[in-house]
């Protein structure tokens, strides 16, 4: 057997083994999301995986997460991302999402925000230091306190996480419209709208002109 053939076969075998290990790690990460009902960043996942006996590095976890995100983006053709978001009136279609928000006194926090597709205005939002179904439930409840339930709710969050949110809403007796898993290019508008307000509050806190509530 030629050396080139031997080494080519060996390389393919090693790549297949690495791919299998990566797939197993991704499955374990998805299981963590399902069991805990909340989202984690790479560093948080790494600590949880270490407690479960994971022997790899943080870089390995981050690489697997990055590839998973890239694979998700490849599955949805970009030209059809915003198709289906046409509206004729307010409170017809909402989009719900979670964003990272840096703060001075609490570090990184999370904001669950709901935007009305027709008006591009925030209908409800909530903050917390952890990502959980309660974060989403509070945002939905605040939206319902002011506006009627829409005919459809769009989200690009993980289906497993949304299932936990559905159960939490059911316990709180909050009805939900049909939920469609779809990317919305303007779902960061909530964050852009509220960050200037947060920044102003943070500056006042630093100067001692405001109190933490």
UniProtKB/TrEMBL annotation:
GO molecular function, one term: nucleic acid binding
InterPro entries linked to this entry: RNaseH-like_sf, RNaseH_sf, Transposase_IS3/IS150/IS904
Cross-referenced PANTHER family: TRANSPOSASE FOR INSERTION SEQUENCE ELEMENT IS904, TRANSPOSASE INSF FOR INSERTION SEQUENCE IS3B-RELATED
Protein name in UniProt: Integrase catalytic domain-containing protein
Protein's organism: Lysinibacillus sphaericus
Lineage: Bacteria, Bacillati, Bacillota, Bacilli, Bacillales
